[in-house]
């Protein structure tokens, strides 16, 4: 019995962007990463509508992490003091196509390191690996405004993804990202209206919409993922129905959020299985869940999670 | 396709007899369209109209149940493609395999391992719902025997998995009181399998390798007198499976294509536990009614169950925790006291951060009707009065000797009034509760 045709077509699609500048494009990257391009909801239509494969960005911290559980420290134990070596390990051993340098240590409460430190880290990582970079501030407005423009400058012309800018603090980083030829992360606190607003604000400053990636904030599995999930689905539908202010690719922070979950970090819970398995599993589940709603870059911490999520993406985003 | 009030009106007697309790037939038609009235309330409706209305008013995805009593599994009845439109209705039933090649102690051990996959999260019990007994042995006797053992050794619902009508008949005969789901009928075995299902009063899985074949198969099964059907689209890989599930959901809900208007079952038994976890989470989000797994690793099953819980949460209703005092660790009379709202997300984030501070504490949860700190404050549900009342109601003053209250950084502005209302010293905590461990370690030690 033949089934009826389902042919829902949309007028819009998610912007397609390419991170990283190789020598031909004035940078020093040896590879680039292209994301976005979906022209339907996830698994809507055919495989051709799915756009580019989502990509994992493995987290590298600028300073030795203070509060990571042992299970998460273990794979990086020999490189925790050297962001360059850390990034190299992610790329060479764990196959990372994108590295997210998180400048945690510049936060006033987490080390209060200065711009000279951040520039040094940026240069080290740029030298150590050839993949494109995400350069992410610490979330303290004042400190980010002091340090991140310098970081942006240190990576000028490399077409990095920099941020994150918020509704209350976007001017200096937006201006410098524009000048240095980078892409910009706009951040909203699980609020689709603010997400749109911050894109309008950045765009009003002359920042091209095609160079923005949105960060809606992430809730881990069991800790509010349903809010993030529905906002990502709504953003995708808005992009497909032609809302230019919502047509950006999406980044989500699975690593940080998943490892805050009790199920990932509590050590003595025999009923839940071994601690060394639970953390990676929580990251895998959070990442795969968000992939169903429509996300393009996933920040991941544990190499085992990176492997499993990559395998999933390779299975499901075949042309 | 759902009928409008006017469509229904055309099928009614139009006598305005008021026997249904409504003033006019039109009013009754409108009430029917909104599902506020039942067709049986009209004594004069024609058989023809009854048929048409019943067909049109049947839900686009049929409800299917298997198992009995508290272990009954309910599937189907879904109405939307996206959870922000309306709640996803019947949560995905996670199911774990047991092979009929196992015997004796190995078999009971495996059944026990599956039975143990029950957990509690935020006060709600979640767990694996069913056992899928697989006819790996190829023998009808082994299958029937193992089925009887599973029935006795587990309270979980049962799915009998075999392509052999003989094996199915043998196993169904031994387990029919527990109403197992029979998996599966194929285009080749449709009549025989439907016969087993009919004789034993069990729902049946229809399995085919294309949507066209599957639609034909369900019609065939229905013609054989079995209406409770679960769909299994056999796909060459996970990508095609997910594309197919989305297409089937859209056909059922948007086109009201009845031959595919049933819930689905998917197998995610390939690969290691991490692989099954990834596959299962995608299937849960994208419309699988049942997901069958091979792993019994709690570390993989717990996140899957959590995914089911989260995706099937009602998006219109914030999940709340009970307002009261929560003890984190083993706090004593010198431990810190802080408050937050009863929006579950807010509470559990705070709880997690207090736990990681390793400082035993009391968290007072104030009833703000499930809103977050800032929303509750701007809606006047979190103010000096509601906090002071909650402190009195839950006896906070008796728990500690000190009189210091830590408040969320975002509502620092209420410090003065709160101090007046409670006579407690107010300490303003950080705005982000991830900074709380550091804050507590600094101010409390």
Describe the structure.
- The complex is a heterodimer of chains A (319) and B (445).
- Chain A is 39% helix and 13% strand.
- Chain A is an alpha/beta fold.
- Chain A has a single domain (18-316), classed as Dihydropteroate synthase-like (TIM Barrel, Alpha-Beta Barrel).
- Chain A has an eight-stranded parallel beta sheet with strand order 8-7-6-5-4-3-10-9.
- In chain A, helix 2 (83-92) packs parallel to helix 3, helix 3 (115-128) crosses helix 4 and helix 4 (141-154) runs parallel beside helix 5.
- The longest helix of chain A has 19 residues, at 275-293.
- The model of chain A has no long low-confidence stretch (mean pLDDT 96).
- Chain B is of the alpha/beta class and 445 residues long.
- Chain B folds into three domains: 5-57, Electron transport complex subunit B, putative Fe-S cluster (3-methyladenine DNA Glycosylase II, Chain A, domain 3), CATH 1.10.15; 64-311, TIM Barrel, CATH 3.20.20; 325-444, 3-Layer(aba) Sandwich (Rossmann fold).
- In chain B, 41% of the residues lie in helices and 17% in strands.
- Chain B contains 17 helices and 17 strands.
- An eight-stranded parallel beta sheet of chain B has the order 10-9-8-7-6-3-12-11. Chain B has a three-stranded mixed beta sheet with strand order 13-15-14, with helices on both faces.
- The longest helix of chain B is centred in the middle third of the chain and has 16 residues, at 238-253.
- Chain B is globular.
- Chain B starts with a helix and ends with a helix.
- The mean pLDDT of chain B is 93.
- At the A-B interface, helix 7, helix 9, helix 10 and helix 11 of A face helix 8, helix 9, helix 10, helix 11 and helix 12 of B.
